[in-house]
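[agent] plan:
  1. take the single chain provided in the ticket
  2. run structure prediction with default settings
  3. attach structure tokens to the ticket
  4. add a short note for the reviewer (M.T.)
[agent] executing step 1
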Amino acid sequence: MHPFLSSLINYEKGLLKYQMDHFDPGRVGRMLEEANFSYEGKKVFHIAGTKGKGSTAIYLSRLLSGVYPRVGLYTSPHLFVVEERIRINGEMISSEELHTLIERWASLIERHGCSFFEALTFLAMAYFLERDCQAIVLETGMGGRLDATNFVSRPEACLLTRIGWDHTKFLGDTLEAIAMEKAGIIKTGVPVFSSLQEEGVKAVFMEKAKEQKTQVVFVENRAQLVFCSPTKWVYRFPDGSLWESSQWGEVFAGNFLLAYEALKGVGIPIEEAKAREAFWRPLPFRMWYHHPFLLDVSHNPESFLALFQALARIDVPKDLYIGILGEKELARLVPIIEDYRHLFERIVCFDFASPRPSGGRELLSLLGGKAEYLPEVPVIQETGKLSILTGSFYWAEEFLKRHGIEREEFLKI
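[agent] step 2 finished; step 3 output follows
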């Protein structure tokens, strides 16, 4: 990573209280104005949520790339290199291009006292606008209301994925409180599209939309799974047609439909052939099947439940390995793991090197001895079983190195 970026305050490595003292959602907008950048006339799509916002953002960018010559995508966090967060038509910004941007705008970034995430958000927008991206997809970081991406005054649409239990120390200890933070991206008169939500969350979104003189369209996952194997999942879509995907997990069909319906809702037509191609391709490190492994980054109760429901569809012997940050909602994971314990011959909690404390030993304790423990990223020998690894991005690179797996295939979207 560029030394300048490394020198900036990085709340991803140690989150402070989520308040205006640390986060200013207008900062990036002021910087763009000072740098004479305008996103007027660009189709900007803003995505927040607890579960599925990254995959929804990727699907949305794939669909938009079938319509516009250049589509920018800004996501977080990254698996291996920071350049993954900034893409045009799926291609990462090169390290040389990022270096040039940093050298050009370092003084502006310093003058505004940017954090790491704010600086990257500005640099991403500068990159997209310099290269005349006609459409831009922005994924929020942790929250929404105070997020660095929330500078856009009038996006084309706001998308809200499933709200669940994550970052409760910072966003609130009820789903409604978390939903209120996420709903902070809703803007006056801007269409809002949401996954189906708990009733309390739904009420929060509808009330916020009413305040902003707009409406929320709740998109139900009406893709019916009709067949699945390790290499192909087939769905019947709402119109009765069959769609195929190499991506494991019914939850991702729902995220695709959210992106698809949002574009239809704002009048952007998508060719079916291009939509099918976007749906077929897998998502990096989201239930990613690489025999004999399934690699995943589930880290909250909702994503663990979606993972286990997908695994229940595939009838092969399985072992589960969990490497997760200690700050996550570990106690809420325990009943879900116990409910699906029968799927696995072994459950192993492991720890890993990370800028934030790893929680493998703590999770083992909460499971009451119903699992095994490893103090480091596991090396798994061929066992004839499917080995599922989940819980975090942070162990990904070490795991791939230890198993001789090239990381390049995980950099493609």
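[agent] step 4 note for reviewer: Confidence is low (pLDDT under 50) at residues 15-20.
[agent] ticket updated
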